[in-house]
Amino acid sequence: MRQGEGGKARPRDFPRVCAEGTADRRQGRLAGRFPPRYIWRMDSATSSLVFPHDLPPAPGHAIQITTGVLWFRLPLPYRLDHVNIYLLEDDDGWAVLDTGLGTSACRAAWDAILAGPLAGQRLTRMIVTHYHPDHVGLAGWLAERFGLSLSMPRPEYLYSLALQYAPGDLGADAFRPFYRRHGLSAEITDLVLGRGHEYLRRTTGVPTSYHRLQHGDTLHIGARDFQVQTGGGHALEQAMLVRPAEKLFFAADQVIARISPNVSVHAMEPDLDALGIYLRSLRALREAVPHEVLVLPGHGLPFYGLHARIAELITHHAQRCGLIAAACRERPLSVAELVPHVFHRELDEHQTGFAFGEVLAHVNHMLGGGELVLETDSGGTDRYRAR
């Protein structure tokens, strides 16, 4: 082991590469580290996108997107330093779309909103798009404090519940052979298996009952009807809301400007074609949601140019596959050996696990498409050769 920044020990035998997240340099608001799901930089430009808001809401303030739709931000302790929260005017109050991370900083930011823009008004219910802790993290706290009901897609809710009541599974030793088979060292494997418990420290649980959101549903909120779209790849069955009459699209983390959401494969479902699922979701959104909507994402600024952004994301992942194919033409490589071919700057140990999952998602997709051939060496390590 060697010493890194802050005296942290770093294994010698894993290539140290860093993913570079894309900051909106014009506004200069991203500093520190991206959370692992968003550490990837987009290779293509976003010049075709139009951003109607030059600045995000200041802390403790909300911006009115349109009548009955408010937008504010909660802080995240990463380089991508915020998550967007939306309030939708409901009968006798406001419905909450996503909740924030289960931290004292997010609770304090909620208190500032409740004492400021929402002073004297009430919250009516929660809609949570997916199980990631920056979106579901304060669901338990909000439910307990305000008696809010929860609406959520079933797979997202059940996975949140499973993590809440079976935390031992997050670092299950049964998953160790999965990581070792793909070339991770024992030390890095230990770090990856240990990181799952961070989820529990960043969430407050979910209520023991919920209302199910399904693809194709119509969700009534106040005087508005929203079409429910769902999509996988980044999460299990992430919920998105479309209001065609006002050209509004609440995209959660499925489509974000300047950031490519992490699409990973995990030990629980090792052969999953997560990338294929994500790409099919993008193409379905392109068919179902008009190009001219205002995209209201889970991170970053609202923007116009949905179909252009979808095209950029599809191209981005094709380029990733191209990098992997080129590397595997020289010699067979494991997933761990492929990480530095895809991510060209330093990753800390925490980010390395997510980079591993992202590379494996591309490898599985390419295997299914016949672009790679699996070869297992005498030591039991899986390596891939390009056709």
Overall helicity = 25-40%
Count of beta strands? 17
Apparent shape = globular
Average pLDDT score: 87
Structural class: alpha+beta
- Remind me, CATH topology? Metallo-beta-lactamase, Chain A
* Number of self-contained structural domains: 1
Give the spatial strand order of the biggest sheet: 3-4-5-6-7-8-9
Which range does the strand content fall in? 15-25%
Sheet with most strands: 7 strands, mixed
What is the name of the CATH architecture?
4-Layer Sandwich
> What is the first-to-last residue Cα distance?
37 Å
Number of helices: 11
Element string (H = helix, E = strand): EEEEEEHEHHEHHHHEEEEEHEEHHHEE
CATH homologous superfamily, by name?
Ribonuclease Z/Hydroxyacylglutathione hydrolase-like
* Alpha carbon gyration radius: 21 Å
CATH class: Alpha Beta
